[in-house]
Amino acid sequence: PAGGVSLRLCSTRATLEGINKPVIDRVIRVDHAGEYGANRIYAGQMAVLGRSSVGPIIQQMWNQEKDHLKKFNELMVAYRVRPTVLLPFWNVAGFVLGAGSALLGKKGAMACTVAVEESISDHYNSQIRTLMEEDPEKYKELLQIIKQFRDDEREHHDIGLEHDAEAAPAYSVLKTVIQLGCKAAIFLSERI
């Protein structure tokens, strides 16, 4: 399991009992979509930069994202949450974003990583606040998973900064555009 976090569910019935199903559906659906999109972004970056000096760093971050996606796949089954209908779109959009940013070079790929991971960290923090307001004990295991994944995303953000993301061409414009796209993707994936 990613970050040593595991979630053991005795039975689906016990899991669903007493939870705020609409809130949990939104949390798990959007997080699954986000981790799916992140996997596609790193796949696109690896397609372009996989054999470069930054390839192993991108691969390391991608491996963590694969673990995150695996966990959210499990949570979707356990909590009976349907995926967003936008997955086919995120499949293409994520890969195009990853490959497109990587075509700008290492700095462009890292700028993309910083923008996306900052957006996701902020989003995870918002979810943590929501679940804490709902019932921190009832959602203890889910909170633990989200906190661990948020910390992983922050680490990816910092790796991007350490690898010259801010030196990318038109960094602030690139970051702003990518983050607006992330906000739109989050909004849509929670609902559709």
Automatic annotation (TrEMBL):
Which pathway is it part of?
Cofactor biosynthesis; ubiquinone biosynthesis
Q: Which residues form a coiled coil?
A: none
Q: Which keywords, in A-to-Z order, does the entry hold?
A: Iron, Membrane, Metal-binding, Monooxygenase, Oxidoreductase, Ubiquinone biosynthesis
> Is Nucleotide-binding set as a keyword in this record?
no
Biological process terms from the Gene Ontology for this record are: determination of adult lifespan; regulation of gene expression; regulation of reactive oxygen species metabolic process; ubiquinone biosynthetic process
| Recorded GO CC terms | mitochondrial inner membrane; nucleus
Return the protein name. COQ7 protein
Q: Which organism is it from?
A: Oceanodroma tethys
Q: What is the lineage of its organism?
A: Eukaryota, Metazoa, Chordata, Craniata, Vertebrata
